[in-house]
């Protein structure tokens, strides 16, 4: 149900004594209404005894936004949409329309979805709305795995994508523990999807985005089979070196625990037997002697265990075969 109009006067009627100019389009208003409803106009446009109609150029905004604000002043009505929300929000702050500003803020919160969250986050920064920005961050943290599948994500700017990459902390397991491997996989999917959309213009941004992304786990298979095999990474020696050195840095960090933990087989916890050859190759390439020694020791241990395990399986198989033959004899 519509609210009772606070003013019988209407914009653009014959009694207007003040004109808002947006570009080359005018909106006729009443000085008394604007001064009564907004502190901005009350302070900046005092009563003018001159009977001529005064004008005010409203700059850096759209006609639709000004029209929406005027409509709200006269009728207390506003139908928000994403096309004009930024301009209306800014005008509501400039003209000090607190109720309209709150409506804009609530609309942005309720419009949060996989595509709009980045746009709203960027807008919240421009508007210096820390609370809204924090809510956008929380949404990003929990929905990036679906945001990355959204088609329009490819239309985001390098700044917006980098913002996501740097803020994302990843999903959690059933025990509330961060799933770092899944996080890195989602980040890599986001980067490659965005770059491939316009490869001619974005290929040079790939290395910067990889460095900006908050990769944490840096899974060996992800690096070896996907990142380093990416044709764009292969074409960029700087990017390739960064990825290889970053992987070794992560592995060395995981090996920086005390000797007791290392003796528990930390190498086996961070890479499989198949991955160890690749790690060994990189360790030699970048002269990471401690890592190289650790992997070699682990490979030798695995080799001995595999021999013993094979013998056990062979004996077990022979025993099982004898029992099977005895049970099937008539």
Largest sheet: 3 strands, mixed
- How are the strands ordered across the major sheet? 2-1-3
Give the amount of beta strand, in percent.
under 5%
Total beta strand runs: 3
Summed over residues and divided by their number, the pLDDT gives a mean of 78
**Alpha plus pi helix count:** 18
Low-pLDDT stretches: 1-6, 257-264, 309-330
**Share of residues in helices:** 55-70%
Find the structural class using helix and strand composition.
mainly alpha
The rounded distance between the terminal residues' Cα atoms is 91 Å
What general outline do the C-alpha atoms trace? elongated
Q: What is the radius of gyration computed over CA atoms, rounded to a whole number of angstroms? A: 32 Å
- Sequence of secondary-structure elements: EEHHEHHHHHHHHHHHHHHHH
Q: What would you say this structure looks like, in words?
A:
The structure is a single chain. The protein has 330 residues and is mainly α. The chain is 64% helix and 4% strand. It has a three-stranded mixed sheet. Strand 1 and strand 2 form a beta hairpin. Helix 3 crosses helix 4, helix 4 packs antiparallel against helix 5 and helix 6 runs antiparallel to helix 7. The radius of gyration is 32 Å and the shape is elongated. The N terminus and C terminus are likely disordered.
In short:
The protein has 330 residues and is mainly alpha-helical.
């Amino acid at each position: 149900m519509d609210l009772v109009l606070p003013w019988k006067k209407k914009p653009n009627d014959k009694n207007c004594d003040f004109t808002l100019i947006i570009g080359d389009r005018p909106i006729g208003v009443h000085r008394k209404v604007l001064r009564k409803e907004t502190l901005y106009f009350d302070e900046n446009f005092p009563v003018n005894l001159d009977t001529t109609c005064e004008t005010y150029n409203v700059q850096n905004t759209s006609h639709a936004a000004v029209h929406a604000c005027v409509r709200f002043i006269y009728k207390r009505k506003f139908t928000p949409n994403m096309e004009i929300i930024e301009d209306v929000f800014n005008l509501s702050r400039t003209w000090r329309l607190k109720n309209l500003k709150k409506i804009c803020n609530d609309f942005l919160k309720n419009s949060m979805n996989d595509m709009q969250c980045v746009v709203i986050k960027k807008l919240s920064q421009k508007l210096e709305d820390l609370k809204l920005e924090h809510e956008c961050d929380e949404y990003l943290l929990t929905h990036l795995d679906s945001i990355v599948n959204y088609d329009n994500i490819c239309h985001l700017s390098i700044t917006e994508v980098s913002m996501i990459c740097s803020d994302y902390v990843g999903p959690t397991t059933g025990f509330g523990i961060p799933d770092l491997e899944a996080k890195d996989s989602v980040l890599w999917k986001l980067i490659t999807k965005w770059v491939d959309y316009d490869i001619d213009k974005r290929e040079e941004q790939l290395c910067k985005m990889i460095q900006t992304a908050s990769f944490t786990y840096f899974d060996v298979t992800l690096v070896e089979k996907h990142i380093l095999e990416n044709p764009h990474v292969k074409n960029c020696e700087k990017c390739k070196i960064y990825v290889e050195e970053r992987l070794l840095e992560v592995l060395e960090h995981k090996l920086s625990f005390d000797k007791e933990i290392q003796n528990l087989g930390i190498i086996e916890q961070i890479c499989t037997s198949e991955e160890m050859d690749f790690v060994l190759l990189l360790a030699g390439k970048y002269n990471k002697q401690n890592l190289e020694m650790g992997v070699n020791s682990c490979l030798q241990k695995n080799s001995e265990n595999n021999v013993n395990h094979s013998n056990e399986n062979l004996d077990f198989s022979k025993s099982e075969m004898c029992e099977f033959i005895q049970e099937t004899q008539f």
